Amino acid sequence: MGRSPCCEKVGLKKGRWTAEEDEILAKYIAANGEGSWRSLPKNAGLLRCGKSCRLRWINYLRSDLKRGNITKEEDEAIMKLHATLGNRWSLIAGHLPGRTDNEIKNYWNSHLGRRIDSFRRLGLDGGDAAVLDLGTLPGAGKRRGGRTSRSAARKNTIGGAVGRGQQGVVASPPVSLVQSDHSVVLDPDQNQASSVTNDGLVDANEEMASELLCCTSPMDGRLWGTDAEMEHVLLGPSEESLAGWGWPDQGDSGVMTSSEERGGGVPVTSGQEEGGATGLGVERGPELVTKGEEMVGSSSSQAEKLLDWDLEAMEAKLWDEAGEMWWHSELQDLGLHGLADGGYQEEPLGSWLIFSGTSLGDVTALGRCDKDEKGFLENETSRATNEGNVTGAVGRIRFGFSLSLSLYEDYSERLVRAADDATLAVPQDQGDARKRSAAMNMMGRTYKDRSYHNRHPLPRRLSHHPWMSSEHLILIHRNPLRIDAFTLPSTAYAL
DNA sequence: AACAGACTCAACCGCGGGACA
DNA sequence: CTGTCCCGCGGTTGAGTCTGT
After folding, report:
1. Where is each Myb-like domain found (predicted)?
2. How far, in Å, is the CA of A30 from the C1' of nucleotide B21?
3. Which of the residues A134, A267, A465, A484 could staple to A126 if both were Cys, CB 3.0 to 4.6 A apart?
4. Is the CB of A244 under 7 A from strand B?
């Protein structure tokens, strides 16, 4: 049976609300209270659908709404909450009094995405300084377009002393997962339960969300504390377990071992910290911090199960024949031809698989790279990860460019990243404005190819890993088999 | 000055789930 | 147990505005 419409649509007004309609709605709710949205328009004399009335009230007319721009504190809170709760805007809004889910959603989709683009990055050589602050580049971080002025003016004139009815504010749950050092350490058993039951998952994440807003320690951003958590990230709610893989005991100190020491690749940490300290207490720029340990071959069969995920299928799409065609097209679209003969050289594929995800498990980054590309790609992946949402990213170095490609978003999103990466490749110390301009202009390219979504579906198996957070990154090394996990300190958000 | 397109954000849409008969 | 109503949520759209060329 088809669903009945929420209201009789014929003859109802749509689109922008007028001041008169706002006044009618506000007066009616002041007199009668919220609720009964279906019957409200008729009773109030509005030619609007009940849903539209509700939306207008919730998002605009309520008297307790904050007016004005998102503050820095709110901005940081949104970042942290999103890392934990994902796109559950209503929950996030519940932690930000006076802000609506719609407002936060819009803010995230515009401001924060832009913010991430100005993310300070680490150098390829693991040196001290960030390579480039995109925020200093032309166009970066610059507000363009929009209707803020008029909108703000309207907001200041509309919505007066109307009462507020019940609203779905989420009460802060008791904190139970946090240790005194402010790092969140989960009991593996609880973690298991949370992975299995959706309810547990929601509760635990909300608890973490509340705690994240309470913490002031530099450890704020840490969500993982145990290898058991990583197991669940990797294996999800599956019955399979990595138990027996022989995870070395790291304790909960957060002290991590540099994968550089084991793998001989580019240092993951920036070099700002001697001795492979955690970096979680460092106040300057974002850093990747290794967390994982070497995997020994005794449990390779289980490891192979892990690697036999749909990751394999995805890899094939990305890197095998079809994938190469795709790369070819991609590069041509970007006008990148690298080699003198107009072609480009296929580099030997490395053995690193990289993936990461936003909170609640949407994988946001997947790729693999050669060992010597690892450091930069990790940075790239971390950036993609911090961009959050459902974006997937595949990074690779070609001709000095690191292309980041979205698996889920449309081509324009991918090209923005690619252009952004190209910008990074521009020698800034030379002040070559022309090259910079060319690189930045690539950001203007837009494509709409939704079919890509259908051709490259995300493996369901990788979805909904409860402890995946935008602050974390996992790398799976095939030979020798090893899994590294990285924690991005919360300072990564402090731009 | 005109234009293209980037950007914001209010509003719409479809769906899921709870309540209830 | 089933069907319906209603609410609320998250994703998406597109009008309006601004900026760069």
Report:
1. 9-61, 62-112
2. 31
3. A267
4. no
